[in-house]
């Protein structure tokens, strides 16, 4: 069998496997239903906000949390910022707000988000009364630009989430606060602004579409994981995984995914909800987006060391193990897929250029329909998320726009192959530096879009309206 035959066969297997996976998660995505809320007064709530040069957004975030979550205590971790981040937090602390500043200085600082969160965890434990029940203490990790929906505590206090003593963590849906900004780059031309708007919309589609569908499916396999923003964890669960060194968050670049694995290995279950969400800023730069995703892919590759423990753990079912294996194998499969898909494309292009009659005969004798089916499946697996996104999340956008977003998502997804190569190259070079995601807001601005005046914080999710006018 030639390299071309092998590549075609492998690409077919990968394509069919991915198509089957998409069919499963779409089914669960469309069948998902809201869960009853609970009483947030049953718990003690804390926000952890790791910050490194977040002057542009931290002030408005603290004001937002004080307005809509006055019962919560906020722990701002200043990871040796060189701007006014610490001063903004300190001013509110001195004014009597429930805000505490946790300062980290070099050389201990700037060693990763996990270390910053561990510092907040240790500060919280030092501050709590010894009689405090850690089962009733909930920690929410929030990015400096994060805007949780006002109903987040009610939703997460429900019986399906922290009302169930077996639940160790809950991840809420992630949305992009700047998905509707008309002129994201005011100093640039119309083409640059159109591209930036599309990039922001695709990130919103990605998180509220396929990523949300994967998390909903994981509720059936018992493998829901947590993200870096809108991650809520029971303090007793953090204590269980940080028992030896008081460091529940690990060193992986994907510290949130690593924490989720450690919680599941310790016997906790994780929950996921679309009934509450957190808004964050989408990136308007492809370069910044690729840098962020390379870090995520490399972090996922680093977590491969847990597979042996997951394989032997009684906490994972066979289906759960396969789901985690599939997710963690994605960057590696993309490396294989790059070769599997690229070789047939290059071979066809070479033949078309050098042997046009041979290529024409191939197309006329069954090759053209095969290529069309192959292209239809390959693009359709991604393009379908545009109409699904319109149906479930943003009904105010037109069908034409939804179809365009779906087609654009196919190109957007192609960037993951570049991401996998760069992540693998960094691993080979033993580079594990952590690159901070840039903010789109500027000092003195209002920060991310505030959707709060449009919704009632105690209403269930199927009755509220988002910025885009959608019910989810």
What descriptive keywords fit this protein?
472 residues; alpha/beta; 8-stranded mixed sheet; 14 helices; globular; disordered C terminus
Protein described:
By secondary structure, this protein is an alpha/beta fold. It contains 14 helices and 8 strands. It has helices spanning 3-31, 55-68, 85-94, 113-127, 152-156, 190-221, 235-241, 255-265, 286-302, 307-312, 318-354, 356-383, 385-392, 399-428; strands at residues 44-51, 73-79, 99-104, 137-141, 147-148, 167-176, 231-234, 269-280. An 8-stranded mixed beta sheet has the order 3-2-1-4-7-6-8-5, sandwiched between helices. Helix 9 packs across helix 11 (318-354) and helix 9 crosses helix 14 (399-428). The protein is globular and about 80 Å long. The N and C termini lie far apart (50 Å).
Topology readout:
Elements: H1 3-31, E1 44-51, H2 55-68, E2 73-79, H3 85-94, E3 99-104, H4 113-127, E4 137-141, E5 147-148, H5 152-156, E6 167-176, H6 190-221, E7 231-234, H7 235-241, H8 255-265, E8 269-280, H9 286-302, H10 307-312, H11 318-354, H12 356-383, H13 385-392, H14 399-428
Parallel strand pairs: 1-2, 1-4, 2-3, 6-8
Antiparallel strand pairs: 4-7, 5-8, 6-7
Helix pairs in contact: 1-6, 1-11, 2-3, 6-13, 6-14, 9-11, 9-14, 11-12, 11-14, 12-14, 13-14
Helix content: 40-55%
Extract low-pLDDT stretches. Answer: 442-472
Largest sheet: 8 strands, mixed
The pLDDT mean sits at 88
Strand content is 5-15%
Secondary-structure element series: HEHEHEHEEHEHEHHEHHHHHH
Shape: globular
């Amino acid at each position: 069998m030639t390299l071309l035959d092998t590549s075609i066969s492998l690409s077919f297997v990968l394509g069919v496997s991915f198509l089957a996976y998409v069919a499963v998660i779409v089914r669960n995505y469309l069948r998902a239903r809201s869960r009853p809320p609970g009483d947030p007064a049953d718990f003690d709530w804390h926000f952890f906000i790791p910050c490194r040069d977040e002057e542009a957004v931290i002030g408005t975030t603290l004001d937002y949390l004080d307005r809509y979550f006055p019962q919560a205590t906020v722990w701002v971790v200043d990871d040796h910022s060189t701007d006014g981040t610490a001063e903004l937090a300190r001013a509110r602390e001195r004014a009597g707000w429930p805000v505490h500043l946790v300062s980290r200085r070099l050389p201990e600082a700037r060693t990763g988000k996990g270390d910053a969160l561990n510092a907040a965890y240790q500060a919280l434990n030092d501050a709590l009364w010894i009689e405090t029940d850690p089962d009733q203490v909930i920690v929410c990790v929030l990015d400096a630009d994060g805007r949780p929906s006002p109903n987040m505590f009610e939703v997460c206090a429900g019986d399906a989430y922290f009302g169930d003593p077996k639940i160790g963590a809950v991840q809420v849906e992630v949305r992009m606060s700047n998905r509707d900004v008309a002129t994201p780059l005011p100093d640039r031309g119309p083409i640059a602004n159109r591209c930036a708007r599309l990039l922001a919309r695709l990130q919103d589609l990605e998180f509220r579409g396929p990523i949300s569908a994967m998390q909903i499916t994981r509720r059936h396999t018992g493998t829901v994981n947590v993200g870096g923003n809108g991650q809520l964890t029971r303090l007793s669960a953090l204590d269980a995984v940080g028992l030896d060194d008081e460091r529940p968050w690990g060193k992986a670049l994907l510290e949130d995914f690593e924490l989720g694995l450690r919680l599941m290995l310790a016997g906790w279950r994780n929950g996921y909800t679309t009934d509450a969400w957190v808004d964050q800023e989408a990136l308007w730069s492809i370069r910044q987006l690729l840098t962020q995703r390379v870090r995520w892919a490399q972090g996922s590759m680093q977590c491969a060391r847990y597979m042996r423990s997951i394989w032997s753990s009684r906490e994972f079912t066979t289906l759960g193990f396969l789901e985690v294996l599939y997710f963690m194998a994605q960057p590696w499969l993309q490396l294989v897929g790059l070769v599997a898909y690229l070789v047939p494309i290059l071979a066809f292009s070479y033949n078309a250029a050098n042997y046009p009659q041979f290529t024409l005969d191939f197309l006329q004798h069954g090759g053209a329909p095969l290529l069309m089916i192959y292209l239809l499946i390959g693009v359709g697996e991604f393009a379908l998320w545009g109409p699904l996104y319109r149906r479930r999340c943003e009904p105010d956008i037109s069908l034409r726009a939804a179809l365009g977003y779906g087609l654009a998502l196919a190109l957007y997804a192609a960037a993951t192959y570049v991401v996998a190569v760069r992540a693998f190259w960094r691993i080979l070079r033993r580079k594990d530096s952590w690159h901070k995601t840039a903010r789109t807001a500027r000092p003195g601005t209002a920060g991310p879009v505030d959707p709060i005046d449009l919704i009632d914080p105690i209403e269930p999710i199927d009755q509220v309206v988002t910025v885009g006018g959608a019910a989810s």
